[in-house]
Specification:
Layout (H helix, E strand, L loop, with lengths): L3 H10 L10 E5 L6 E5 L4 E5 L14 H23 L11
Antiparallel strand pairs: 1-2, 2-3
């Protein structure tokens, strides 16, 4: 498996080598406000729901919490990617 830098350099030469499967499927489930979200080529699955007081089962984060968590994870991932590119070691990071 190539290293991050090898992948990065390969994408700079040929952008078609980058991730290109942005498929997301959201499927309503019958319990509460549950929705099964299937994402990407690896078919990662996440259960999105709502709190009990909003007719949900609270078995997964609400859509709003899922979006906010995704934004925080994106900030961390992009910062770490640039750290790797610039040879900067990032030891810890928290986004609230």
């Amino acid at each position: 498996m190539p290293s991050f830098k090898e992948t990065y350099e390969g994408i700079k030469v040929d952008t078609s080598k980058g991730e290109k499967n942005f498929n997301v499927k959201c499927e309503m489930l019958n319990e509460g406000m549950q929705c099964k979200v299937t994402m990407g080529a690896s078919n990662h699955e996440v259960l999105i729901d709502a709190p009990i007081g909003l007719d949900g089962t609270d078995k997964g984060p609400s859509p709003l919490l899922a979006i906010l968590g995704s934004i925080g994870a994106c900030i961390i991932a992009v910062t770490r990617f640039w750290g790797l590119i610039m040879d900067i070691k990032i030891e810890s990071m928290t986004v609230n």
